[in-house]
Amino acid sequence: MAPMPAPIPIAIVKNIIGEATKPFIMLLAIVAHLGYGGAFGGALALLIDPVTVKKAVGLSLALWIIMQIIVLPFIGWGVFGSAITPKIAVATLILHLVYGFVFGIFMDRKNIVKD
Hints:
The chain is mainly alpha-helical. The chain is 72% helix and 0% strand. It is built from 5 helices and no strands. It is globular, with a radius of gyration of 16 Å. The mean pLDDT is 90.
């Protein structure tokens, strides 16, 4: 059971564009979420050599902090989700750590390319 009143990407899209049809909001939210997750992962892969699990988790923690102090207040949930429940901070931290760990595992060039 998620402590958030709505998925964060959907709340962001609704905050930016207002009311629209549910399929349109979901489409924009999915594209945006995958887009910026992929863009930051791609930037890490281009700028950092080698990409390791530790570096990818560092990226995920940086993205989590940005979300906590900029995005959540933007959608009206307060810093670290404090206007709703502090459980939001914990839940999103876990999700970001999973992102970083999985990204790091797949991008760790030592494990992919054997010289």
